[in-house]
Design a protein that fits this description.
Blueprint: E1 2-3, E2 6-11, E3 16-21, E4 27-31, E5 47-51, H1 76-89, E6 93-97, H2 107-116, E7 120-125, H3 132-141, E8 144-148, H4 155-167, E9 172-178, H5 183-192, E10 202-207, H6 222-232, E11 239-241, H7 246-252, E12 269-272, E13 277-279, E14 291-292, H8 298-304, H9 306-312, H10 326-329
Parallel strand pairs: 5-6, 5-12, 6-7, 7-8, 8-9, 9-10, 10-11
Antiparallel strand pairs: 1-2, 2-3, 3-4, 12-13, 13-14
Helix pairs in contact: 1-2, 2-3, 6-7
Length: 342
């Protein structure tokens, strides 16, 4: 059912409802009276993270996808093959990623196609290749876009980009990777608080992932992380985090449980690579833990693939036993324990 811009769905057999506003991005999942909170959406994912290209010109040494100028693009036919299945399963949102997704040669058509199936697209860009055509399509079809923050670009670079997206009426977020190599620049940005930052919808902090070209020791120490999270708890700015940061949130930010969600991989979300391999989480890309959408349907992989079933099991690390935050954190990142702030 749809009221205005809000979609409401009741999964009676799973005993829960979802409400999603396509315009504002507001989303809530609530269980039916007398039933526990749902562990996973048996009917299929609610959100998909789809890499439509592994092409990127930057070659960053922390890139978890190891993207490069040799990265391949998904074909438009393959993308429609995916999005049609997604629509049939009730997927509400698709986060388009890469590589640098807006440098896909048919990116505007990808956005248009997504909306034709009544799914809201969003994407994260490194800032390259943002033509007026791309920004116009973004304003028309997307719920929001995010710009990745690279300290080496300088603040003027982001002032120009945010000025362009603001003039187009695009809801723009800033994605910032939390690592030992970026923390000083992040703290400086928050202290300087340039005027253009007021035109950013929210700053979203992403925990560093030691995978791909990002292998190595770039994670924050617990002492440095504690100071940073406690500072963010007092800020007036609109901020958010990826679920990989949840262990820091529950330890140091005193956030109400209803505003916190642990990792949703294989429970309510999944990742699909440009070669149609489907994983519980994008940080598993390159492993053997996938289903092949050229061989099985999206629903079959979601419900029956062993990697997905294993990822749903409650298997906390032994160090979680007795932890006061387990109920909200659920053990933090299941893949890379070293990034958990425990």
């Amino acid at each position: 059912m749809m009221v205005g811009k809000t979609i409401s769905k009741h999964y009676e057999n799973e005993h829960y409802k979802v409400f999603f506003n396509q315009q504002t991005g507001f989303f809530i999942r609530c269980e039916d009276g007398g039933y526990p909170e749902p562990k996973w959406s048996k009917h299929g994912p609610e959100l998909l993270d789809i890499s439509i290209t592994n092409y990127c010109e930057r070659g960053c040494d922390f890139c978890y996808r190891s993207s490069s100028r040799e990265g391949r693009h998904i074909s438009l036919d393959d993308y429609e093959f995916l999005v049609k299945q997604a629509a049939d399963l009730g997927v509400l949102q698709i986060a388009l990623g890469g590589g640098n997704p807006n440098q896909h040669p048919e990116f505007a058509k990808v956005l248009e196609l997504t909306r034709e199936y009544d799914i809201i697209p969003s994407y994260t860009t490194n800032g390259e290749g943002l033509t007026d055509e791309i920004l116009d399509a973004t304003a028309k079809y997307c719920g929001a876009m995010a710009i990745s923050f690279y300290p080496s670009n300088g603040l003027n670079y982001y002032e120009r980009l945010v000025s362009r997206t603001r003039l187009k009426g695009i809801k723009t977020n800033l994605h910032v990777i939390l690592s030992s190599e970026t923390i000083d620049a992040i703290e400086s940005l928050l202290s300087v608080s340039p005027k253009w930052l007021n035109n950013v919808n929210a700053i979203i902090f992403l925990n560093f992932k030691p995978v791909g070209r990002g292998k190595g020791s770039m994670g924050l120490s617990n002492d440095r992380a504690k100071t940073f999270f406690e500072r963010l708890a007092k800020t007036d700015r609109k901020i958010g985090f990826d679920s990989c940061s949840i262990s820091g949130i529950v330890r140091w930010m005193n956030v109400k449980p209803e505003f916190v969600e642990s990792c949703e991989a294989a429970r309510f979300s999944a990742f699909i690579r440009e070669d149609l391999k489907m994983y519980p989480c994008s940080f598993m890309s390159g492993t053997e833990a996938y289903g092949d959408l050229r061989e099985r349907t999206m629903l079959e992989i979601w419900q029956e693939n062993e990697a997905f079933k294993r990822f749903r099991l409650d298997a906390p690390d032994v160090s979680c036993n007795g932890c006061d935050h387990w109920r909200m954190c659920k053990g933090g990142c299941r893949l890379y324990k070293e990034i958990n702030f425990c």
